[in-house]
Amino acid sequence: MRPSPPPRTFRVKSFGCQMNVYDGERMAEMLAQQGISPAPEGEEADLVVLNTCHIREKAAEKVYSDIGRIVKDARREDGTAPLIAVAGCVAQAEGEEIMTRAPAVSMVVGPQAYHRLPGMIADAVEGRRSVDTDMPAETKFDALPARRKVGPSAFLTVQEGCDKFCTYCVVPYTRGAEISRPFSDLVSEAQRLVDAGAREITLLGQNVNAWRDGDGRGLERLIEALAAIPALARIRYTTSHPNDMTDGLIAAHRDVEKLMPFLHLPVQAGNDRVLKAMNRSHTVASYLRVLDQVRAARPDIALSGDFIVGFPGETDAEFEDTLRLVEQVGYAQCFSFKYSPRPGTPAAAMDRQIPMAVMDERLKRLQDALNGTQLAFNRASVGQRCAVLVERQGKQDGQWLGKSPWLQSVHFTGSAAIGDLIEVELTQAGPNSLAGRPV
Ligand code: SAH
Ligand code: SF4
Ligand code: F3S
Q1: DSSP per residue over 84-95, as a string?
Q2: How far is the CA of 181 from the centre of ligand 2 (A)?
Q3: By the 8 A CB rule, do 241 and 204 touch?
Q4: Domains and CATH numbers, the chain
Q5: What is the pLDDT of residue 145?
Q6: For residue 90, which atom of ligand 3 is closest to its CA?
Q7: From the CA of 16, which ligand is nearest?
């Protein structure tokens, strides 16, 4: 690599889950602290950080097409090119391979090492390429600058990594073992987010409900502490594992008013043989028991989940079990995916991989079923009164968009400002949003 002038502007592009969004924000803050500014909209940046996702094949391949596009767009007259850093889960999984496959990339940095990016940028300026996929003992959280201005709804990563090793999943390899950030760090970061404008905080983790305090207490302790911050109106958390839904956390849904009535609890499949092959370590019945307990604590809770269709060996009858579960639970919203074999995971080597055409058909049937339960949930909300947290302006004059307590998108017309909680009556329901009238 040739030496290049120090970057003056940057752009961070995040793919994948909300934890990557959070990491992307923190990288941006760190770069700003280094004196590099965000590139103005529509202008090419001197430094591009691709914060990547490895969860499915399509997500991972995006990296290489993006690199190709950046290089092609940047035919500069002076012969310089933007510096490219690949961060996130593809960086962790493919490290050196990216260096070989994409000579335009000068930095590859894993999700637990990006606080070391400034040193890597200095190397890149001098023409040296570097790869850092360590999972260092000092954590990125300790090394990053304080939070700046944020919107009304902010993310806070409280837990990272996964020890569950579902047989299809790369996360335990890309994010490492489960770690919980310390209680006091989190309370002060939450306070800073609120000071910077957040009215709602979503606690994030690959298994957020596995968060434990030093003394062994669970996520409900953190939720209770954040609920005591007066200007914070709403608390959410995602993503949870069914086996980590403790009695204490379930009780928080009854006792903590600021904890919103929404639970994202992925089940992946509705058949016990498939769940076992996935190494989910729960059954359909144990999952449903957890949902019953949560509903007993918070009857109006909105439920959400993730599903995979076409896991190796999944029969038509086993897939039908998933459809039955969807109808039984009546999800308010869900994500569903075709199984994607990931290099190095046990499921990728299993017999009876399912043909793409079968997966396409199953996904369509599942999504039709999920759209049905979602519309039914939204319709059942019509007539209710609730607060909407205003997130942005709508297209029409005086129109505002925000979220209900059940995480539905709601639009209404009236006087409001971003960050307000406006009491509305829900008047009309569509599949993806509702209309409301201020009361
Ligand atoms: N820790 C979370 C989910 C992390 S990944 C949990 O266990 O719930 C988000 C979702 O991606 C998973 O819930 C799963 O539905 C999907 N997913 C993960 N690996 C996948 C793969 N190999 N193919 C298709 N979908 C996958
Ligand atoms: Fe992946 Fe399973 Fe861990 Fe979720 S619990 S991150 S699906 S291994
Ligand atoms: Fe993707 Fe990594 Fe998140 S693989 S889903 S960015 S943890």
Answers
A1: EEEEHHHHHHHH
A2: 19
A3: no
A4: 9-132 (3.40.50.12160), 146-260 (3.30.750.210), 385-438 (2.40.50.140)
A5: 76
A6: 4
A7: 3
